[in-house]
Amino acid sequence: MTGAPLFERMALIGIGLIGSSIAQTARQRGLVKEIAISTRSPATLQRAEELELGDFYSVDAAQAVDGADLVILCVPVGANEAVAKWISPVLKAGAILTDVGSTKQSVVDQVSPHVPKGVHFIPGHPIAGTEQSGPDAGFPTLFDQRWCILTPPKGTDQAALEKLSAFWQECGSNVDLMDPKHHDLVLAIVSHLPHLIAYNIVGTADDLETVTKSQVIKYSASGFRDFTRLAASDPTMWRDVCLNNKEAILEMLSRFSEDLSAMQRAIRWGDGDMLFDLFTRTRGIRRSIIEAGQETDEPDFGRHAADTRQDD
Amino acid sequence: MTGAPLFERMALIGIGLIGSSIAQTARQRGLVKEIAISTRSPATLQRAEELELGDFYSVDAAQAVDGADLVILCVPVGANEAVAKWISPVLKAGAILTDVGSTKQSVVDQVSPHVPKGVHFIPGHPIAGTEQSGPDAGFPTLFDQRWCILTPPKGTDQAALEKLSAFWQECGSNVDLMDPKHHDLVLAIVSHLPHLIAYNIVGTADDLETVTKSQVIKYSASGFRDFTRLAASDPTMWRDVCLNNKEAILEMLSRFSEDLSAMQRAIRWGDGDMLFDLFTRTRGIRRSIIEAGQETDEPDFGRHAADTRQDD
């Protein structure tokens, strides 16, 4: 897509859905000359090699990072600090160090102390994904028309910021700059709360004695199944998100619960007007999301279940 | 699909997503000879006529029902009683009267007193739909591979039950028989709670001062947008569901809230193991739903946003 590659050697630490998608996008679009991949699981590393995602593979993160001018941490956010300590001695001056974690203030707190002078540390978060995980789940168009949020610390080198922004733009994304704390608040409502609510409702259904699991499964097309997608996301990733964005998540959970109590009260007391008003104003938001190009306008997500008779 | 039509004249009272889909399916598959359509809104009735959904159109439900051997109430559940009173005088002996409402005990309570002797009243609920509403939203494959629950009262005529079952089977559905109270409990967890939670979270996001609406929209692909689909459903229908399945919904809401409090506590106290365990067991349910043919196995619902570069 571009002429010369933006980077000589990109090191990906972690090769799940996001790492794998970055590798495939960067390779397909010629954004980097060489790709080094490291992950602590030998089985996952072998799978990455079978998929030919990189040029160099090692379970030793420091070996992968050695000589890299772009280092991207693609591990669950709880693992960032240990990785930063590990690679710190081999990070070369002038290199850009970034990550893809769903929380940003925690990454700043945990990684910054281990970044050597002369290395440009610019935390990042591509707002893209599916419910699947692992290197096989990656694909090269994952970042197209999505947003990537960067949270450059004060005094960040402008050239490094522009280069990293260019990388994400070539990956297909629009780049936004944000304060890490504000990022964490925004993501708490648009991503963390939805996932937690989804996990929670699926758990509640799983626990019922009065309705069997097979009934939940059979009739799930009436609404429930939508939640099971988010609730099938990677458990380690989401445990780490909870532990690393505690304050913002608790704030959003508590607002959600307050609103739910008000709804519960309206149902108990038969306040149809309150319910009708709420159910009406929520429609507009979906319309706006579709207009912003962040959602399909096909009914039911354009979903086709294992339905061979459906011909549209 | 079959030989002779199952019914001479089918009357549809209400012609939204479900009524329109029934009309199209029945016509396409030759299940009825004649289709009479009634709805109280002249504009909607006119639209149904433009779409050529039926053979006879009237804002007077009694006129549509006159001479029908199959009458299907396709109105929001709160309107069933008034419609039943209205059509009661013209329901002919031997006719089958059914409905498509999302609550069943309320329909039994509100409609039964108005059913003349000799009319077979068999409440029903096809578990199918999209977030869209109105006659334009209907399509003839909506019921394929879905379930239709019938709640025949004690002493229901066996031949009538078989005939109505055959109708739904020809529409593409599997028929289940259930007690109305149990139906209401099952639907409270698989359908009503998911919709209410979705409406609630979208409402919570809409109310925030710290995160702007445009940020919620921009970054919605990270989870939030999934909820906006259910929260775009028909407000009148869902208000009526809440008012007519109060007990079961309050029971499920209270279980959900308890579980949410436990999760909130785990987050506050950093109980990663509790979170990891919950996030792990919820994955299995999605797998089961996919295996049961009630969900697509494509990542992200196979959704393609307004994404022209995505080529898979």
Question: Could you give a quick summary of the protein structure above?
Answer:
Two copies of one chain form a homodimer. Chain A has 312 residues and is of the alpha/beta class. Chain A is 47% helix and 12% strand.
What is the topological layout?
The structure is a homodimer of 312-residue chains.
Chain A: E1 7-13, H1 17-28, E2 32-38, H2 42-50, E3 56-58, H3 61-65, E4 70-73, H4 80-87, E5 96-99, H5 105-111, E6 120-121, E7 124-127, E8 147-150, H6 158-170, E9 174-177, H7 180-207, H8 213-218, H9 224-230, H10 235-244, H11 246-268, H12 272-291
Helix pairs in contact in A: 7-9, 7-11
Description:
The structure is a homodimer of 312-residue chains. By secondary structure, chain A is α/β, with parallel strands linked by helices. Chain A has two domains: 7-178, 3-Layer(aba) Sandwich (Rossmann fold), CATH 3.40.50.720; 182-298, Orthogonal Bundle (6-phosphogluconate dehydrogenase C-terminal fold), CATH 1.10.3660.10. In chain A, 47% of the residues lie in helices and 12% in strands. Chain A has twelve helices and nine strands. The first copy, chain A, has helices spanning 17-28, 42-50, 61-65, 80-87, 105-111, 158-170, 180-207, 213-218, 224-230, 235-244, 246-268, 272-291, and strands at 7-13, 32-38, 56-58, 70-73, 96-99, 120-121, 124-127, 147-150, 174-177. In chain A, the strands form two sheets. In chain A, strands 3-2-1-4-5-6 form a six-stranded parallel sheet. In chain A, strands 7-8-9 form a three-stranded mixed sheet, with helices on one face. In chain A, strand 4 (70-73), helix 4 (80-87) and strand 5 (96-99) form a beta-alpha-beta unit. In chain A, helix 7 crosses helix 9 (224-230) and helix 7 packs across helix 11 (246-268). The longest helix of chain A has 28 residues, at 180-207. Chain A is elongated and about 65 Å long. The interface between A and B is large, with 120 and 120 residues.
